[in-house]
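Quick one: structure for this chain?
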Amino acid sequence: MAKRTDDPMDGLKKYLIGVAVSLTIVLATQTGVLVWWCGEINTRVEYLDRDVAKNDKRLARLESRTPLRHRSDPALPISE
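Got it. Here's what it folds into:
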């Protein structure tokens, strides 16, 4: 009797290997996209921090030039 070389489990093994490879590729891609996205967010936050610092300096300069009566200080009475 001739021995069968094709095992019915070979198809299942090939399928499971394909699924494992596909999941590995998907997870690697998602990880790469996550790293890229975090880099973009970090860059945006750095730009916003610079803008806030620049605006704080500008505001301090403007407040130093503005007379006290025009500042919005709740302790000062509002004159009409």
